[in-house]
C-alpha cells in the first residue's frame, strides 16, 4: 500500500529526469529571448576589438599608463592658482533658510495646556544673535532688523566648521 503523502521514488526520478532533459534543451536560448546575453556578447566583441587595436599601438613589454591629466583636468594650473570651478550648474538648487529665535523643550501635557495668549519661554536670551540655518545646518548668526515694515536678518558672523561642531552640543 502506498502512502499519498510520500511520492513513489521511481515516479519522482522520472519527473526529475524529464525536467533535466527539458532544461538541457533550453541551454542555448535564442538571443531574441535573452537580451542580456545579446548585450554581453556585444560588449565582449567591442572589448576584444578595442584590445586588439590597443595591442597594435602599444608594445607588449610596455606597461599600461594611467589616464592622469590626459583625462582629468588638474585642480590647479601650472602657476599654482586654483582653476575656477563651474558653479553655474548648482546655482538653481533651492535650499531652505531658517532663522532660529530660540528653542525649548515641552512635555505633551504642557503642549496641550497652551492657549491663545500663552507665553513660551525660550532658551535664547534677548539681544543674543540668532542662528541662521541652511537645510538644518548652522552656517551663521545674525541680528533681526526691520526694513519697510518687514523683518530681516543681518549676518554678523559666519560659523566655521569647528564652531559648528561645538554648537551641535547645545
Automatic annotation (TrEMBL):
Which ranges are annotated Basic and acidic residues under compositional bias? 1-14
- Iron-sulfur: is it a keyword of this entry? no
Pfam families, per the entry:
FliMN_C
Give Gene Ontology CC terms: bacterial-type flagellum basal body; plasma membrane
Q: Please list where the region (Disordered) is annotated.
A: 1-84
- Protein localization: Cell membrane; Bacterial flagellum basal body
Q: Which GO terms describe its biological process?
A: bacterial-type flagellum-dependent cell motility; chemotaxis
Q: Boundaries of each Flagellar motor switch protein FliN-like C-terminal domain copy?
A: 89-159
Which InterPro entries does the UniProt entry name for this protein?
FliN, FliN-like_C, FliN/MopA/SpaO, FliN_T3SS_HrcQb, SpoA-like_sf
Question: Low complexity bias located where?
Answer: 37-48
UniProt lists compositionally biased (Acidic residues) regions at 23-35, 49-60
Molecular-function GO term, any one: cytoskeletal motor activity
Q: Name the keywords, alphabetized.
A: Bacterial flagellum, Cell membrane, Cell projection, Chemotaxis, Cilium, Flagellar rotation, Flagellum, Membrane
Membrane topology, as annotated, equals:
Peripheral membrane protein
State the family named in the UniProt similarity comment for this chain.
Belongs to the FliN/MopA/SpaO family.
Q: State what this protein does.
A: FliN is one of three proteins (FliG, FliN, FliM) that form the rotor-mounted switch complex (C ring), located at the base of the basal body. This complex interacts with the CheY and CheZ chemotaxis proteins, in addition to contacting components of the motor that determine the direction of flagellar rotation.
Put simply, this protein is called Flagellar motor switch protein FliN
User: Which organism does this sequence originate in?
Assistant: Halomonas organivorans
Amino acid at each position: 500500500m502506498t502512502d499519498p503523502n510520500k511520492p513513489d521514488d521511481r515516479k519522482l526520478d522520472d519527473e526529475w529526469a524529464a525536467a533535466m532533459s527539458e532544461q538541457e534543451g533550453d541551454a542555448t536560448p535564442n538571443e531574441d529571448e535573452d537580451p542580456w546575453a545579446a548585450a554581453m556578447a556585444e560588449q565582449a566583441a567591442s572589448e576584444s576589438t578595442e584590445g586588439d587595436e590597443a595591442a597594435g599601438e602599444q608594445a607588449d613589454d610596455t606597461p599600461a599608463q594611467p589616464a592622469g591629466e590626459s583625462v582629468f583636468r588638474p585642480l590647479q594650473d601650472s602657476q599654482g592658482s586654483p582653476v575656477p570651478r563651474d558653479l553655474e550648474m548648482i546655482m538653481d538648487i533651492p535650499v531652505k533658510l531658517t532663522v532660529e529665535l530660540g528653542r525649548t523643550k515641552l512635555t505633551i501635557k504642557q503642549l496641550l495646556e497652551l492657549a491663545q495668549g500663552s507665553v513660551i519661554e525660550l532658551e535664547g536670551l534677548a539681544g543674543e544673535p540668532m542662528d541662521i540655518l541652511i537645510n538644518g545646518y548652522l552656517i551663521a548668526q545674525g541680528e533681526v532688523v526691520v526694513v519697510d515694515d518687514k523683518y530681516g536678518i543681518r549676518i554678523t558672523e559666519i560659523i566655521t566648521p569647528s564652531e559648528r561642531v561645538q554648537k551641535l552640543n547645545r
